Amino acid sequence: MRLFLAPIFAPALLGAAMPETRFTVTLPATLAADAGGRLLLFAEPATPENANADAVDTDASDKNGVSIAACDVMGFGAARSVTIDTQQRAFPTGFATIAPGTYRVQIVLDRNGDYNYGGRGPGDLVSKVVTVRFPLASVPSIPLDRVVPPETGQFDTTGLPPRAAEQIAASRPHLHQEYIASTALTRFRGTNQAIAAWVLTPPGYDPKAHATYPTVYTANGFGTTHKLDGQLLSQIWHLMETHAIPPMIWVALDYGTPTGTTEFADSVNNGPWGLALVSEVIPALEARYRMDAKASGRFLTGHSSGGWFALWAMVRYPTLFGGSWPTSPDPSDFHDFLGVDLYAPGANMYRDANGMPRPIERDHDKVLATIEQYAKAETILGWNGGQLRSFDWTFSPRRADGTPAFMFDRESGAVDPAVVAYWRDHYDIAHRIETDWPRLKRDLDGKVHLTVGTADSYYLDGAAHRLEAAFRKVGGRADFNFVSGATHGVADLYARGGDRLALWKDITNAMYAVARPQRPVTRR
User: Fold this and answer.
1) Contact 471, 478 (CB under 8 A)
2) Which helix (DSSP H) or strand (DSSP E) does residue 116 occupy?
3) pLDDT digits (tens, 9 = 90+) for 339-358
4) DSSP 3-state of 461
5) Residues 6 or more apart whose Cβ sits within 8 Å of residue 219
6) Beta strands in 170-282 (DSSP E)
7) Cα-based angle 498, 502, 505 (whole degrees, multiple of 5)
């Protein structure tokens, strides 16, 4: 998600009246008055390019800059209305200083607190896009007049390109939805818990036959959903069906929650997701499907946050898996956490030693956003669920109030050394390699195969270089592929020589060679 500072102008002169900054939000009689959640107001400058767009959102028109205001509401009361003051809680600044002009405004009531992770979802209340002139001459009134409908079915191809629709339809008989009950997570949460997954069986699969197949466990990037996971496996089916990649069983694991992605790492905040994976999910699936069910036939891959999962699971459970092929994983060495050395004295996420803003997203040499922008926008969109807060939910110790400690202060950017020490001892992968290699070597040596672009959009190549150095320091074998000029996008990273899936084919063939070393791999 790209977030940009909206244009602002200088504050009003001393003695001038503060401009109106309030909006009234009303609820139609057809909707329950007790509707509560986080009320979000989005405003973007009106331009000819966005005149016909039906939404204003943080991703809707990055180049224009979107301002956001928020307030928490318990309900709309007998009057069926609430007031949101856009000066009180706003990004990038209170609306009293928004640049004069015509804006497109839309209001959303996020009812389940997951806007930071998934945006607008079923059950949220949304207004029409209205045009407003700033500074406000009076208090505008905007009704929330529709409910976001339920999500369409997994195999609903309405609106998809014909090729994608064909792949989804063709994969349908081979794509199986699973919900694996988890005693470990149930015990942690106190309510019944299950982990969702999609299992894709290859062409020629026969549940009654003796033949077994290598199995790939994968997780997608931050913001993924269970439905999207299944649709991506439909693409895998097409590649196996056309013999572009070898026949294997694929398992797409759902690890998205309202607080972010769990990484399948045991956490005092999220619960024992790692334990659930290795002691409940994998055994249950191996009992139901014709899987090899041995280390040489179990593999890991994933991109971005899913890449960190694939890397972590390999290092944490080296006897269980035959290899891991992460791409562009989240930071694996906290000496370079999105470009910040968390271990440096006086470390600050927002400013470097020279006081310059720290970037978080780039397009090659162009900085698109800073860490401070991302962090402060997250706090407006919701208490939890954003990418940066998700790291706290996975890596941080738990506070007395039951919430995860903040690794850095959201106002100042100051890093908390005590929290960072906890991160290091529990989740810094490079630190684990350096301090625990004698124990890990026998089962981990040669099993990590990491790929990242040298122009990664989130500067993740820096941590990958440090992880490579950690392996070299201990004399370990691991493959690191730094793709020149590639960014974070898979379309950029995976393409080579006109083949947009070249890296994907390399990875799957390498896995199959481990599982079936005597069988030649064919590619088309």
Assistant:
1) yes
2) helix 115-118
3) 999 999 999 999 999 999 99
4) helix
5) 252, 253, 255, 261, 264, 302, 305, 306, 309, 310
6) 175-181, 194-200, 215-219, 249-253, 256-257, 260-261, 266-267, 271-272
7) 150
Do the beta carbons of residue 404 and residue 397 sit within 8 Å? yes
Confidence grade of residue 40 (pLDDT, cut at 50, 70, 90): very high
**Could you tell me the sign of the dihedral formed by the alpha carbons of 363, 364, 365, 371, in that order?**
positive
C-alpha separations of 519 from 203, 506, 513 in Å:
17, 16, 7
The full DSSP string for 285-314 is HHHHS-B--SGGGEEEEEETHHHHHHHHHH
Contacts of 73 (CB under 8 A, 6+ apart): 36, 37, 38, 39, 82, 109
For a pLDDT cut of 70, what percent of the chain falls above it? 95
Closest CA to 202 of 169, 247, 245: 247
Instruction: Please state, as a whole number, how many other Cβ atoms lie within 10 Å of the Cβ of residue 73.
Output: 17
- Given a cut of 90, whether residue 60 has pLDDT beyond it is no
Task: Count each helix (H run) and each strand (E run) in the chain, helices first.
Answer: 14, 23
Per-residue confidence (pLDDT) for residue 258, from 0 to 100: 86
What per-residue confidence (pLDDT) applies to 518? Answer: 84
Rounded CA-CA distance 23/10 in Å is 22
Tokens of 263: 């990484």
What is the DSSP-derived secondary structure letter of residue 255?
Answer: -
| Residues pairing with 180 in the sheet | 195
Written as one letter, the residue type at 182 is: S
Read off the pTM: 0.92
Q: Which pLDDT tens digit goes with each residue over 443-473?
A: 999 999 999 999 999 999 999 999 999 999 9
Angle of helix 162-171 relative to helix 226-241, nearest 10 degrees? 90
**Interval 175-191 mean pLDDT:** 97
